Amino acid sequence: MFSNMSLIKENEKQRRLKEAFKIPWIKSSLLLGGIFIIMGAILIVVFKIFNFSGSQFILDVKAFIESYGLIGIFLVTVLAGTVIPVGSPALVVAAASFGLHPIPLILMATTGFTLGMVINYGLAYSLGRPYVLKKVGSERLEEISNLWSRWGWIIYTIFGLIPFLPVEFLSLFCGLLKTRFDIFLALTFIPRLLVFTLLAYFGNQLGWWLGII
To answer: Exposed end of the chain (fewer CB within 10 Å): N or C?
Structure first.
């Protein structure tokens, strides 16, 4: 009896989670992410086939990234932590593939992104609903509110672990609700630390494979 009830509840949770990913702006984010991955894979194969690793352009880019990459990554990830879509995951992969050491890259990217999210939280906390409505719109805010009422911090963590999902919108909602800042900070930093760690080491191996490093 109890096992059947637990199974029913678990199935209901899975159904609701699947429904959440059918929300148009979430679905479109995942679709764009998939398209980006396919395009990136094609570019990598072309790069490998034609062996551009020794070209002067690539050497110049590598030298620039080695000199200014960490500062650039920090600034870009701060912007990415706000609602500006600058593609920080792709930049982390690119920076690692051009030779930036993974550990400082991971720390800089995670810190920058977390700072951007804290800025979102602080602005929403201070300026309230009118500011958040201006950033995300009334329909999207209502959808986020429904997601939060069902899942709370779980959905925030899931968004943080999937690079293409706009977790930045949820950070605004957290500020609007005045959620506990220590939990917000931990669940912003840790998932993105895991994501950037995987991406940085993938980029590092990619750089060796392409002959850039």
So the answer is: N
Nearest CA to 184 out of 42, 81, 73 is that of 81
Q: Tell me the residue type at 204.
A: N
Q: Is 69 helix (H, G, I), strand (E, B) or coil?
A: helix
DSSP state of 53: G
Residue 177, pLDDT > 70, answer yes
Token pair of 104, please? 């400082």
Q: How far apart are CA 66 and CA 199, in angstroms?
A: 18
Helices (H), 152-180: 153-161, 167-177
pTM: 0.87
Nearest alpha-carbon partner for 114 in 155, 78, 64 = 78
What gap in Å lies between CA 106 and CA 86, rounded to an integer? 17
